[in-house]
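Q: Sequence in, structure out?
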Amino acid sequence: MTRQKILYQGAEAKIILTEYLGKKVVEKRRLKKSYRIKEIDEKLISYRTKEEAKLITQSRECGVSVPIIYDLDVVKGIITMEYLEGPRVKDIFDDIDDEKRKKLCENIGEKIGRLHKNNIIHGDITTSNMILIDDRIYFIDFGLGEKKDETELKGVDLHVLMEAIESTHSKYSSYFNYVLEGYKKSMKKEAITVIRKIDEIIKRGRYR
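A: Exactly. Output:
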């Protein structure tokens, strides 16, 4: 029998390390909600599983590194994916030297720009949802993602990362500026309106 290990359990899904066709893989299993009507819950799980898998595939197509999907069960709400053996950006961000950190941030921004150029909204861009392997950044957990061409959502995506860096890596909060530099490389002129939107979001937060 294949040994399984729970890597993470949140409100929406459970992440399990297991095996698939002799490979070490991760299963993302969406959790049933007892407070929802059974038929509605099943439809939601199926829809969100399918949408997440689609976003992962589309991200790869636009040149952003993501886990390979090996199997998809939309009825049970399970995505079986490549297990990425590397550190989360969260765990190495504070320990690398300044030049590496700068390049890492520019690289992150450039990849987010590629997603946004293709109207892919990640929905939860934090340093916990990026894995670094051989200087390549892999984006994981598109569970809150969607495909929309909305400046507001792109601004929120970046604002989430800005806040994640400020709270988790407060000593290096200024490095978010390098993320924006990388972002401009991908988004070109479109970056200006998104960056303005971040300022709007910050102001809205201040005056609530």
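Helices lie at 38-61, 89-92, 98-117, 151-168, 176-187, 190-206.
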